Automatic annotation (TrEMBL):
InterPro entries: CAT-like_dom_sf, Sec_Metabolite_Acyltrans. Signal peptide: none annotated. One of its GO terms (molecular function) is transferase activity. This is HXXXD-type acyl-transferase-like protein. Keywords: Transferase. It holds the Pfam family Transferase.
Length: 465
């Protein structure tokens, strides 16, 4: 990660993590048709903010985290591997993960954020997310294949005034958000057991057998390139404003009821209604002409939609983007329920046969996807409020907040998280060009739904209101 001229974060020490050997782990792991396209996406960068454990020293915290990380990687062994690109006879390249290369494992970085406290990370209502968050995550955002040295996972623990932040960097070609939070929760589960002196048998073991569609021979998937230089592209986003917006369960219940009442079907979900709200309000903020085509894209899981379904513990990528489109004029001249129904139909039609058709189409011409596929006339709803982010208790209590780095962000990217208080509440991390964010902050339809954020003293347990 490039350092700023006056970095807020200082690295104290970098540790090498040596995973406990797993004799059953294969040395080579092929990549599926959902993994290979993600080779040029940024690493997933998410992290958790905690109040400083009063009964532990920093040395004890680091030791426990490192020990539990070594144990959890016994089960999540792909994360201790390296990506390798191999040229094929007759042209093309294949990619796979090599496990157990010279006993290498991920890095664990101990850092200190000078003068930064919990309140600075949370950011008060009306404030943009702070720039220094990007320094809470190790590793470069992109991928390289030079000598097969680029790690697939790295961890950074950053000391704050009164708190700690655990940032996890996870290569997107290895897994999606479901796999990412599965790993994070498993790591926390082992650490929590160590806090009370127990050896932990994980409640959810990852399943590493990759899903491949029949009819195209055996893996590996062959890409039509001669070297990584032909497909590795670095994405540099424009200057963005980033904000967290909170939606209480009560506000979302009213929004869902409104959408279903306006369209009269009764089957529109809360998230579909919220996606439609963001689509309408952001396109209004952008001020595009009525004839401009626009789309709303949603990241959607394939695991439960295949027949037979994949295990929820399937480790890897199993996610697609579905989209619905219209014109700006039709979107804004129709009601919320109409837009929400478009989102509902896109999700409803993502069936087993639709997924298989998408995979068959991809296998006819395997390529690598790039972040610039998301055009300026669309929005993209990523992550999920269903991921168990606040269940990641390492033995010192519930996280205070979830925050991300600078990865995979562009104008119109929206990441959804569960609200801290639970109960169906949702937090949205919204990335927009500055002029569009300013317009969104004045949008009456948006302001009628967004809720006040949870107060800091409630997060810290000082107040219950």
């Amino acid at each position: 990660m490039p350092s700023s001229p006056n970095p807020a974060v200082r690295t104290i020490k970098t540790y090498a993590v040596t995973p406990r050997p797993n004799p059953e782990a294969p040395r080579k792991l092929d990549m599926s048709s959902w993994d290979v396209p993600m080779l040029c996406f940024h690493y997933i960068q998410k992290g958790l903010l905690f109040k400083y454990p009063p009964d532990l020293s920093m040395e004890q915290i680091i030791q426990r985290l490192r020990n539990s990380l070594e144990e959890v990687l016994f089960h999540f062994y792909p994360l201790s591997g390296r990506l390798r690109v191999v040229a094929c006879e007759g042209g093309g390249v294949t990619c796979h993960v090599e496990v157990g290369i010279d006993g290498e494992g991920p890095e664990f970085v101990h850092a200190v954020a000078d003068g930064i406290g919990i309140a600075d990370v949370v950011a008060a209502d009306g404030q943009d997310l702070p720039e220094f968050l990007k320094e809470f995550f190790p590793l470069d955002l992109g991928i390289n294949f030079d000598g097969c040295t680029n790690p697939l996972l790295a961890i950074q623990l950053t000391e704050l005034i009164g708190g700690i932040f655990i940032g996890c960097v996870f290569n997107h070609a290895i897994g999606d958000g479901n796999s990412y939070w599965h790993f994070f929760n498993a790591w926390a589960e082992i650490s929590r057991g160590k806090a009370v002196g127990k050896e932990v048998m994980l409640s959810r073991l990852p399943e590493h057998d990759k899903w491949f569609i029949g009819g195209y021979g055996e893996p590996p998937i062959k890409l039509p390139y001669s070297s990584p230089a032909e497909f590795v592209v670095r994405f540099c986003p424009p200057l963005l404003r980033e904000r967290m917006f909170h939606f209480s369960s009560e506000s979302l219940a009213k929004l869902k009821a409104r959408a279903n009442h306006e369209y009269g079907k009764g089957t529109i979900s809360t998230f579909q209604a919220l996606s439609a709200l963001m689509w309408r309000c952001i396109m209004r903020a952008r001020g595009f002409p009525p004839e401009q085509k626009t789309s709303c894209r949603l990241a959607i899981q394939n695991r439960t939609r295949l027949y037979p379904p994949l295990s929820p513990n399937y480790f890897g990528n199993s996610v697609c983007g579905v989209a619905t489109s219209t014109t700006v004029g039709e979107l804004l001249n129709s009601n919320l329920g109409w837009a929400a129904w478009l989102a509902h139909e896109a999700v409803f039609n993502h069936t087993d046969s639709a997924i298989r058709d998408m995979v068959h189409t991809y296998m006819k011409n395997p390529i690598v996807y790039y972040l610039n596929i998301f055009d300026v006339h669309s929005i993209m709803m990523g992550s999920s409020p269903r991921f168990d982010m606040y269940g990641c208790d390492f033995g010192w209590g519930k996280p205070l907040a979830v925050r991300s780095g600078s990865a995979n962000k562009f104008d119109g990217k929206i990441s959804s998280y569960p609200g801290w208080e639970g109960g169906g509440s949702i937090d949205l991390e919204v990335c927009l060009l500055p002029e569009y964010m300013s317009a969104l902050e004045r949008d009456e339809e948006f302001l009628a739904v967004v809720s006040p954020p949870i107060k800091l003293d409630v997060l810290l347990g000082i107040s219950d209101k």
